[in-house]
Amino acid sequence: MNYPHPLIAREGWPFIAIAVMVALGVHLYAGWAAALFLWLVVVFMIQFFRDPPRTIPADPAAVLSPADGRVVVVEKARDPYLDRDALKISVFMNVFNAHSNRSPVDGEVRNTWYFPGKFFNADLPKASLENERAALWIKTSKGADVTCVQVAGLVARRILCYAKTGQPLSRGQRFGFIRFGSRVDLYLPLEATPRASVGDVVYATESVLAVMPA
Predict the structure, then answer these.
(1) Catalytic residue numbers, as ranges
(2) Is residue 125 part of a domain?
(3) pTM of the entire structure?
(4) Residue 57 lies in a domain
(5) Are 32 and 84 within one domain?
(6) Phi-psi category of 115—alpha, beta or left, where left has phi over 0 and alpha has psi -120 to 50?
(7) pLDDT tens string 50-101
């Protein structure tokens, strides 16, 4: 899971390679005009699968954004995985965001869940409970519970989660990827103080969504 940042996510290498071969073949056979759209597809693939290195904020109490995107939810909600009241913060990713998912806190994975589901627009509230999703329960070193949920979207058709039960995760560590538009939900202790607001544009690892209690 910790691999050198190649700038382009490994999940995208096959897609980019196929797109380049098809575009190049059409270009050589029929000329650049016929291949123009295919080269635009190549450019889209490269920007979608970009995986830039990120700088981790120094504050150990900071809850980091697990994804690039826009904050669509900051509210008190019921955590359906740990059956508790929680502070819910959701980040919506469109197809122009980087889609690597990274751990929001330091801790140990206590459990994982996967639920097949539907593919509603990930910007809709019902997506959290009805779409395909994968969830992690992370226990921090101070005993706080954090639930991190990858939610598929309207176009997303593949959730990749590499974290396993019992595995330690560090803040900013890459644990998964969602292909082609989606969202990530965080359920935090009610005592956590939100630092992000609905509408904020955030970046995985570098943006602070909340601060855990001392």
Answers:
(1) 182
(2) yes
(3) 0.85
(4) no
(5) no
(6) beta
(7) 888 889 999 999 999 999 999 999 999 999 999 999 999 999 988 888 888 9
